[in-house]
Amino acid sequence: MIKVKNLTKAFGERIAVNSISFQIEEGEIVGFLGPNGAGKTTTIRILTCYMPATSGAASVAGFDVFSDSMAVRRVIGYLPESTPLDVHMRTREYLTFRGKIRGLDRSERTAAIKRVADLCWLGEFINRPIHQLSKGMRQRVGLADALLHDPKVLVLDEPTVGLDPTQIRETRNLIQELAQRHTVLLSSHILPEVEATCKRTIIIAGGNIVAAGSPDELKARIREGSRLIAELTGDAKELKQAVGQVSGVTHVECATDNGWNRLTIETKKNADPREDIFKLAKEKKWSMRELRLEASTLEEFFVRITAEQAAKAKQREAKS
Q: What average pLDDT does range 284-306 have in this prediction?
């Protein structure tokens, strides 16, 4: 549905996007992540035909973004981070205006406005002036606008900005529902949001794609083995030594608080020594109140990979 090959964008001598390639299939929800200045917004603007590329190729729903940009605009719905609304209009007036621009006739506009108003919970605000709406409500109007022409592809840049926790949860459910009839490219700095919503994630840093895969695949790359957390009573030195000798354990750190020892246990790849640790605790008569596999997060991976890219960039600058 979205194909990008060797896409490059230069601003003078600065390379904002450096020969990136990726593909998004129909019906996928793909997270697009990157720190400030990574090239993420530039890529989105190229795909939505707001900005030309320097070189490379890109297409959306089979239409070339360079030679057939009007066709791309017809099949794409774009919600930018700062939604450009006419605040002097009422919500219904604005959506009617946008429907006319998109070539919808009166009956199509009426049906489309009702559909998106229901989807984006705009019913009680449909006749209210936009300047009276909160930032979160304006974000909903922008999302309704992006959905108005029922596009094949949705590009959502920070769609939950300004929403309260309940609205964020509702928006997450809405995005998952929308994926049943739209392909979704979701850009967000709220990493748990991406982790909960997206089937696949693309991370860009320094103008380069540095990682791609499902959230679980990316998290698995953080460390070769697993990390366990255990809380036990007993002598801290004895605990650390005994647990360190359990098969599959590579390293043990111990911190003591109020008579309980909190062990952070590193293990070999594919090793899971929890059963052996439990048997050891029973044998030594140590009380245990916790033994769990610590789940890594997408945020950990994001921080690590972007830090590595920043360090490489500094090394290149030092050599030049």
A: 82
Residue 154, both tokens: 């949705």
Question: What is the DSSP secondary structure assignment for residue 294, as one 8-state letter?
Answer: P
Q: Answer yes or no: pTM beyond 0.90.
A: no
Q: How many whole angstroms separate alpha carbon 208 and alpha carbon 19?
A: 7
pLDDT at position 224 is 53
Confidence of residue 47 (pLDDT cuts 50, 70, 90): very high
112, burial (CB in 10 Å: exposed 0-12, middle 13-18, buried 19+): buried
Q: Hey, CA dihedral for 30, 35, 38, 39, is it positive or negative?
A: positive
Give the pLDDT of residue 250.
92
Q: Which residue has the tokens 């540095």?
A: 210
- What is the average pLDDT across 309-315? 73
- CA neighbor of 60 nearest in space, from 9, 8, 17, 3: 3
Rounded Cα gap, residues 161 and 190, in angstroms = 9
Handedness of CA 251, 257, 259, 260 (dihedral sign): negative
**CA–CA distance from 70 to each of 43, 67, 84, 102 (Å)?**
18, 9, 20, 11
Determine the Cα–Cα distance for residues 317 and 290; give it in Å rounded to an integer. 47
Contact by Cβ (8 Å): 152, 1: yes
| C-alpha distances in Å from residue 106, one per residue of 94, 96, 100, 247, 256 | 14, 9, 8, 72, 71
Q: How confident is the model at residue 223 (pLDDT cuts 50, 70, 90)?
A: low
pLDDT, average across residues 266-294? 90
| Residue 250 near residue 225 (C-beta atoms within 8 A) | yes
